[in-house]
């Protein structure tokens, strides 16, 4: 009886251990934040490459540098711009999902201290399996259009 219990627990441990690291299959590049003047929110942009064979899901985000970090998407409908807060963002298998101006982004609000161009800020992306992907973002000025311009 004890042997069966040990084998069953070991099997469960392997199952949960294998699933609890989706973040290892995601690679983030070109991470940057557009810093706006004063206390205006900043937008975070990044490219996520999902190397796994299945769709992964970002379900939350946070940053030690900001009081609030939220998943958002900007869009245009009938010539009118709109922004919506998202509960999650899917990262399709074997593809790259871009967080870019005019689309997906992280809305960063209530900076703990002023963030200025050149600073590095960590943003944590929480995946549906419970794993966390920390990403270093470089702060860029308000007129920036990308991570290096």
Quick structural gist:
By secondary structure, the chain is mostly beta strands. The chain has one helix at 2-19; strands at 26-34, 42-50, 56-62, 66-77, 80-85, 89-91, 95-99, 104-111, 120-127, 132-140. It has a single domain, classed as PCu(A)C copper chaperone (Immunoglobulin-like), CATH 2.60.40.1890.
List the helices and strands and how they pair.
Layout: H1 2-19, E1 26-34, E2 42-50, E3 56-62, E4 66-77, E5 80-85, E6 89-91, E7 95-99, E8 104-111, E9 120-127, E10 132-140
Keywords: Signal
Protein name: Copper(I)-binding protein
Signal peptide: 1-20
Q: How would you describe the overall organization of this protein?
A:
Helices cover 12% and strands 51% of the residues. It is mainly beta and 149 residues long. It contains 1 helix and 10 strands, in the order αββββββββββ. It has one domain (22-140): Immunoglobulin-like. Residues 1-20 form the signal peptide.
